[in-house]
Amino acid sequence: MALVAWDTVCKPKQQGGLGIKDCMAWNEAAMVKYVWNIANKEDNLWVKWVNHVYIKEQDWWQYVPPVDSCWYWKKVCACRDKFAAGFVNNGWLKQGDKYTIQSGYQWYKGEVEIKPWYRGVWGRMNVPKHSFMSWLAMHRKLLTKERLQKLKLCQDSDCLICGRHKETVEHLFFECKLSEECLKELLKWMKKGTTKTDLEGIWRRIIRGTQGKRCREFTTAIVAAIIYRIWWARNEALWNQRVPTVKSICTQVKQECKTRIVPLLNKKCSRKEREWIDQLYRYG
Known about the structure:
Helices cover 58% and strands 1% of the residues.
């Protein structure tokens, strides 16, 4: 008798499997129900108890369980991290949606491909490290000084770049003077504008206002590169005690994105898209 891999057996019948539930994955999807309840502050005794005993005043998505926590609580937090990419502003798969075990299981097993709005748009234009850094920023998973202070790994939470405000993800992108000036400079270069101040709002606004697939990919790459370079500038301030200038950061962003777009200009871009990108570098 030929043996069949368990992963194949657990696939839906439409995909050649037997449709048998993967018990481990289903159990984790069931535990994520607790994650959703905590995120949305459901009115039940368990959520109130967890907030009082464990989370207290901390941000649930940045919370790290103490080493002496019980196994069950650590498992809930581990499931939160595993399914975090499926949550959008505490909603499941899109803002305001309610989590169900079935949808969580299907998402985890890849039976449905429903992603947060910014995932899947990076395409070939983006450097992997830029994409990864953007994902961390979107999910508030960067080890900013605010988060390090909560973990008791540093004494203060002052921004390493400006030293005037608490270093949070929101401040670093794009409330800090350096990042704000970088964003303004690059938006001016692309002849774009936005009144949004939050990271997601900025991303949505400038990408939706761009016509053409390659131009949208290019614009996405610019934003991802800004995020990466600001984090790089922050680390320069930490390890080398120097803060790069706005001009040097913007020059690096432009050059990195130019290196990625040049191979696609002749084969994949329409004439209108090619002219738009050529004009940026001719006069920028």
